[in-house]
Amino acid sequence: VNQMIFDGLTVLQHRGQDAAGIVTSERRRLHLRKDNGLVKDVFQTHHMAELRGNVGLGHCRYPTAGSSSCAEAQPLYTNYPHGICVAHNGNLTNTHELTDVVRDTMQRHVNTDSDSEVLLNIFAECMMNRTGRGAAGHGCEAEDVFAAIEGVMEKCKGGYAGAYLINGVGIVGFRDPHGIRPVVLGSRQSSLGNGKLDYVLASESVAIDTLGFNLERDVRAGEAVFIDMRTGEMQSKICHPDASTSPCIFEYVYFARPDSIMDGVSVYESRLKMGEKLAEKVLKLHPDHDIDVVIPIPDTSRTSALQAAYCLGRPFREGFIKNRYIARTFIMPGQETRKKSVRLKLNTIKSEFAGRNVLLVDDSVVRGTTAREIVEMARDAGANKVYFTSAAPPIRYPNIYGIDIPTMRELVAYERDEEQIAKHIGCDWIIYQDLKDLEASVSTTAPPDQPLEKFDTSCFSAKYVTGETIGDEYFTRLHKLRNDAAQEERRGAPLKDSQSRSSMTGTMHSAPQSMDGCEPVSNDKRQSVTGAGSSCEPLN
């Protein structure tokens, strides 16, 4: 299963370039490899040779708070009960309170204030309460796993999704009761021809497609999917009484690949609709515009820009060429790193700008770092006028569910109107998408049998869908962790209260396969996770 997980993480590399990790299970032994860096750099041939087994997890990480230390990489591990690993995508909003519960009430050791470590220990404690001290793989049935997930969802607040690997038992995928973070399920016929199925869980459907699986469906809000490695059977259950789907709309705006499908919605189709709505607003506000050409800011905005150009009746041109070996600037730690990266990442085709009035289209504007540099590059290339549009509304509030949208004071739209923002980034005018149009861009492309009516839009609206009161104390603590100065100061050192954004894939495979790894499970590191397991042979 090692190659499958490696390939899945490579496809999901866009979700995080900070660290990568894989853990596999072989005959009740766990093999772990994780480190800072890209997937292709973390896993060499000798690492892969040691990641043996027919079940595993993989994870790609970028930090939404805290350091880039490899100590933050995932999967994370606890030895009791059974031996459990977790790959987690998202952020708990009550980590501070839960850490005290885990340490003082459950009397479990927590080495950091990491929300993923808390999430792991709460599940482990709930499992122990159900199965006691039984040997690995014994006395642990589907109802025990679902009861443990119910305990997790009762205690943990925020947006989270991921997978647990229970050594000798199987994999359980889960999604928070609001469905904020994504998880999809896929399957395929076993290559053994025994009528069994292989299963995969992933953050995005593109990983399922690439691995040759069929997309079954999205894991529902509040649902747990248990893949039993002893029998090859898959069972699922809604584990929260008030589950209701409100996916993070920023996934459609920026994070997801355009060829992914999330909650039944084609990301590509939703971005086309964003471009259409954006063009309508341009025509409404500037009916006599003098736009000569529409140019996207690579890569995410390309789809929206293409449709906007079509609706405006203006040519679409590639004015920026991207160096694909530079990471995405939005998820890069540190303001100076991001500013330097913009010029390294993009270069202009001067003939597309010279003497023209250009309309630049970006997916969103967060700090304004990229926008300001790009407007300057367009003017340096000879643009007469530079207009700027965003397929998303102004981002004025932090995201607390697992996307590193920073503290309010670092947001370019904080206490600025559109005219002030245009002056700040140096363009002639700027237009943002209306929130209602953004929501309509996604909801109107949903299939009739899977309607989407609610979204987490907190970074635009300050409406946090989990419903709990997010007080000033929480945002003060968040600011101390997320602001660029603090992160630069702590770069390379272990940090408290660190959350990670990640991609997760899980598979249930019908025959044992080898997977490269380099170290036994011993120390906790935060990483993105991929999971795989066997559907026909027990691990002895």
How would you portray this structure in words?
With 540 residues, the protein is of the alpha+beta class. It has 2 domains: 2-246 and 496-531, Glutamine Phosphoribosylpyrophosphate, subunit 1, domain 1 (4-Layer Sandwich); 272-443, Rossmann fold (3-Layer(aba) Sandwich), CATH 3.40.50.2020. The chain is built from 17 helices and 23 strands. It has helices spanning 2-11, 39-42, 45-50, 95-105, 115-131, 142-155, 205-210, 250-255, 267-285, 302-312, 335-345, 369-380, 418-425, 435-443, 458-461, 472-482, 484-489; strands at 19-26, 29-36, 55-63, 76-78, 84-92, 158-166, 170-175, 184-189, 197-202, 214-218, 223-228, 234-238, 261-262, 265-266, 293-296, 320-322, 346-348, 357-362, 385-390, 429-432, 500-508, 519-520, 529-531. The strands form 5 sheets. Strands 1, 2, 3, 8, 9, 10, 21, 22 and 23 form a 9-stranded mixed sheet that branches. Strands 4-5-6-7-11-12 form a 6-stranded antiparallel sheet, with helices on one face. Strands 15-18-19-20 form a 4-stranded parallel sheet, with helices on both faces. The chain is globular and about 70 Å long. It starts with a helix and ends in a 9-residue tail after the last strand. Keywords: Glutamine amidotransferase, Glycosyltransferase, Magnesium, Metal-binding, Purine biosynthesis, Transferase. Residues 485-494 have a biased composition (Basic and acidic residues).
